[in-house]
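#struct-pred

JT: dropping the chains for the assembly here, can someone run the whole complex?
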Amino acid sequence: MSRIVLSIDNGNHCQEEAKNYLSSHDCKVYTLSGRARQPKACIAGCPKEYAWLEGEDIQGLLAEIERNEGRIDLLLFGIDEQIPEDSFIGNHDCEELLEVLGEQINHTEYIIEAALPLLRKGNLKRIGMITKKDSSVSYCKDDRNYGRHMVWAGLNMVGKLYFNMLRPEGFTFRWYCAEDNAGGMSAGEYLLKGLCYDPNEPYIHSDENRFVMRDSYLREIPW
Amino acid sequence: MKRVFITGADRGIGFALCRCFLENGWQVFAGRFMKEWNELETLKKEYGQRLSMINLDVGSQESVSQAASEVERQTDYIDMLVNCAGIFRNGSSETTVNCLNINTVGPIRMVEAFLPLMKQGEKRLCFFSSEAASITLAHRKGDVSYCVSKTCLNMAVRLMFERLKPQGYKFRLYHPGWVRTYMSGQKSTVGNFEPEETAAVAYEQFISDRDWEDVLILSDVSNEIWPF
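RK: done, full complex below.
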């Protein structure tokens, strides 16, 4: 049975590769472009490409998916790597930082909330994020680009809170760290993989009951 | 005499910290947001010149810049900046922006404005974070605005740490525990600690040296470490 995927694009290269993988592995991928200023061509296998839409128009797309498919199996996000670069401490326009943070966190939360009714009807009930190791407070060694790093870390927390809320309903989560020129398992494959889960076992005995971030070699990256 | 600037000093933990530093002989610059709240006036009567009240709204760039200018008029440098001001709000996109403005961007504004005053002295930057910022251990099923704002703060502190540690700055990232504070607007009747209790622990952590200042940790009121 085809998987129905809604991909929220932000110009993330790895997400494009993941969409290609999904499209060629029995997934039907709907795409919502993250940014109107970065229009992207529709990739093969995507039924439709949408410009960045606000409020009711996102609802319009979801209504169309509901009419066509009746469900969403995987809601896929990719971090925005096009957030403007900024400098090290001492050189910021803090109002710009606030605008970037507010926009990205609120949009992500809004889309998850809007898509939840269709995700609940899905077979995978899965939310995925293609991110970077530099989203990790523990791991990051950068000293600039506050906007990017704070948004990426904040989205990890958004994921954890939804994991806490939705895991009891059977939702599953895949947080994948993309690396340039990396081998290992691709994002697309990891997004579809099952993780061990046995409802008859103690809760902590199932990997599916943990919210973790992994790289292409499935090494866990600390938050 | 050592000098500290404390944000959110009107009441709660910030006020308790002011008293703590004053009792230990520090010159305290207290960031004052609520002119109608008079606890700082009481402290001023007790400690006189060693307490300076500075009008401050960490959510306003103009206010932060004015506060830094006012402190510069009064002293050549400060040893320590304590970022204590914070709010707890949830429920809408607007509350998320408000939390991010006060809890996340507020400390960035403060550090950027006060760094020129910290090139000598102890070079200590202290931040109030929270267990709510820990992605590893977050247990909440909501409170997105507050939790995200504190996680973003932790990341901001990481970036500052990587930049400023080589210049001799020392960092403290503190989770005060569940405190009966005013963060939701009025003093909470529930919680495990009074502001004075956690302020006393914070003070000791902030002034004490560590052999491993090259490690950024989130430490709590029991002097234990939290994962990010």
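JT: nice. Chain B has a mean pLDDT of 95. Chain B is about 40% helix and 15% strand.
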